[in-house]
Amino acid sequence: MDIGFKGYPFTWKNNQEGQRRIEVRLDRALCTAAWFAMFSNTIVFHELPLDSDHNPLRIEFEGLKSRTKTPFRFDARWLQKEECHEIVNRNWDAVGLCEDRMRKCEKELETWAKQMYQDQNKRLMEIQKRLEEILLNDRADDIIEEEKCLMNELASIWKDEELFWSQRSRINGLQKGDQNTNFFHSSTVHRKQRNKIVSLKDEDGNLFSHRADISSHVTEFYHSFFTKSDRIESSTIQDFPKLVTQELNDEMCIMPTVEEIKAVVFNLGPTKSSGPDGFTGMFIRRFWSRVGPDFCKEVQGFFHTSIMPQGWNDAHIALIPKVQSPEMISQFRPISCCNFRYKIISKILASRMKKWLPGLVSEMKAAFTRGGMIQDNIIILHEILHQFKNHRNGDWDMMIKLDMCKAYDLVDWECLDTILEAYGFLEKWRGWVNACIRTIKFSILLNGSPTESFFPTRGIRQDDTISPFLFILMSNTLSFLIDKALSRGEIRGIKLNQNCPRVSHCLFADDTVIFGKASVNEADHIQRILRHYGEVTGQEINASKSSIFFSKNTPEAIRNLVTNKFGFPPSICHDKYLGVPSEWGRSKKETFQFLLDRMEKKGESWKSLLLSPGGKKVLLKAVIQAIPSYIMSVFLLPLSLTCKMDSILKKFFWSGSMKKKSIHWCNARVLEKPKEEGGVGFRNFHCSTCTYW
């Protein structure tokens, strides 16, 4: 496996300048998974070159050692032990809130588990030693019976180990029946190494390398980032139509029953990342008969008082690198990990809102609404771009593609509450929502250990079940402002033909595209709309990632005037929209080459070398074959491309690599047969893309 690196991304250059300059990463440090398990704090640094065209590598075997205690995590293996059930039952008999009882369970479970697995490791060594002795001696009947017992005990220990590493690997695609302990373990250590933060730089170039300094810098950055700005204006949303009826309010504000709460608990993912309390859904589901009534009582108490129970809304922020070898905190993506018990409340609110959402938002919003499909927006965009390319006469048209900067994180709470009130939601419902978003306590996970906690004053969490629905309602303000300007004749939109309705914009979550006439006057009106939208919601447009595309007949002078007014770069529209290329030329194969690159990258992953043939088959079917499915649902892929995809899949199945030749032991058609007919069950990519058409 590749240990990874910190610092400059390349290790060799050809000492040329301009377009002739070439830089690649040729030098790297490799190790086995077993070695890395022993020296998991190893870090490789790319140093500056002196008289060579290669960068020297500096390897530190200690790295950044954390002396802080890692948070408690409920272990799936404990559910198989009778002692775990006894500990939970004993501590749940105590008087107090769920928070207090869970803390008591946590302390006793940690003490018990530490001693138990120390004893289990000793027992594992004893079993292996005894089995070696048995294999070297004569095999009498009593010895054979002892061997069977020892093998069963050894299999139980191995099953525990596989369950432990599968829980920590975050891998969901592999099924039971194939022991993938090495794969799960390697996935875990590789992810941990990739996400490790050794040092950070601030905007002034100051380097922080000690944990205390990094912790202070990270906490200060996110505390400032989640602090509310002073800009808020509600005048533009006062004439919102009240779309929430009395019937809707009555249904939304019903007290949840025990049956509804139980259905939510067993619908949420039991193995998803836990929050600060460390208890996953599998704990509550397994012990539902014992702990369920108390959780139901506190959940119903929240809906009665609108007061969040103590500790329920605490959350960790995990930092996921957005680039390879990040150097600044802005190059990490913050993902919050909520407590499972909070997710119960959030899921109840989200489930009720989901039913009524389509009637509350614009028909141009397709995200998270029943009947709304992401493919609709893609097809509409491609039809309009096709007209842009062939538009030689008539009015000049333009398309503005907006990128919102940190859309969820910049949501203003006051504005959100004002919008919910404008829709007609009752104060009771808004009180529940405000309790969910305003009582959060964050702490940053720095290399697995939490930093000092803080309270945000703006933003909604991306992993919170209710967040997408709240964001849709808030961003529907933009649809309202655009539709209002369209009705006044301030903007024109686009009409593909006489029988089509006018299309002024397309929205999917925070992806926004606005269509209009390419003129300075219309650009002024759109700018005013975007400025008002930002003032009332706190949203900010990322000008560097936004772009403008013009119809073919638009004069160059008009293009320059409109582009300069917005400050967005002009686009030739080769970028992507909702993960799909906006347009292509004569060769579809070149346009969709990124699918082949993505499949090859997955196949060449070092983790795949640790898979057994059975595990390899499951990985191919669950991951590799799923990569082009989204594109296939929108476009018919060319035969030459699907044949290449089939070749990649078959080659990886037989050799475990994209670069290593091997014997194909049967015809490719045999692999595509169903398992019942003696095949493997791989789908033919050409047949798959044809099924959508």
UniProtKB/TrEMBL annotation:
Residues 301-563 form the Reverse transcriptase domain. Pfam families: RVT_1. It comes from the Eukaryota. InterPro entries: DNA/RNA_pol_sf, Endo/exonu/phosph_ase_sf, RT_dom. PANTHER family: REVERSE TRANSCRIPTASE DOMAIN-CONTAINING PROTEIN, REVERSE TRANSCRIPTASE ZINC-BINDING DOMAIN-CONTAINING PROTEIN-RELATED-RELATED. This is Reverse transcriptase domain-containing protein.
